[in-house]
Amino acid sequence: MLSRRAALMIGAGLAAAPALVRNAQAQEEAIVPVAAPSDLSGLTRIKRELVAPPQVHEHEQVAPGGPRIVEFEMRIQEKEIQVADDAWLQAMTFNGSVPGPMMIVHEGDYVELTLKNPPTNMMQHNIDFHAATGGLGGGALTLINPGEMTVLRFKATRAGVFTYHCAPGGPMIPWHVVSGMSGTIMVLPREGLKDQFGKSVAYDKVVYIGETDFYIPKDETGAYKRFADVGESYPDTLEVMNRLIPSHVVFNGRVGALTGDNALTARVGERVLFVHNQANRDTRPHLIGGHGDLVWEHGKFHNPPAVDQETWFIRGGSSGAALYRFLQPGLYAYVNHNLIEAVNLGATAHVKVEGDWNNDLMEQVTAPTPYDADLELRTALP
Prior knowledge:
single chain; alpha/beta; Immunoglobulin-like; TAT_signal; signal
């Protein structure tokens, strides 16, 4: 008799069987040696420890020398996460966070990722780097079952911020992505960022925001359903997904992940680089009370940045970056400017900025005070 876990694995596998067979064939063909291994023995190796969003790992803005091999390790975790006060999701994650952690290298470096799929997981997983060249972005070379690991290396040949996501084949692809399996890699130019005039520009901190659309089913009473594991959640979740109407649109995994006590912080005068990823749907970042001083809307750093933007557009399946120097203290809201998604579905972050107020930029000339509306109405009549 099959265990419940085995039955669920078979059910999920059958749903994607044709695509998984094709993907397995592509993987087998891709790993047949057709050239001698690259000799990178002369390059320096450096290991980076990944950290959970919105933070990013230690890095240099300007490359300290020639190309290096930058080593990362990520574990895939299938686990239940709380998306809102009344909603839970059987999530699939890179390193346990939604979005997955950001990786930062320089153009010309080699990214060497050790990817592990623990035996406690139920699903096959892989990783598709939009920054990589060949092999379905690495997806054809990294498809691993529970209890397996793999090592992928690719050369970062293009500068910018790029999406990565899980893409195990067929209907598993969108399900894994909207269940949390996406993230960003930032490939900096070796000389660092430049403004619209080609002049070097630096940032004081990076804020990493991953926007995700979730599709959580409801029961007959209208309450969000909870499931025992990721396999059990698939049929009902697929039905909601196919209607293309998300139940939640959130930053960094849940409603309120970057507001209240979790709000981001900055100081007047600091330059903050906002890196924004959306692996599935278009989005429109906007900083209420601020601007995009320099915006790489397409996320590619060799293109001159747009300047003085109010709202910018990030296509689904891509990442973008915006640099802003805060000029006033106060509470700023960073939102998806589809305000229904921002206010009603959760796509909002807050930035608490400390410093001195500048009345030249904004001043309350008259505080709110009562006035005689009846008198105004009478005098306004002919």
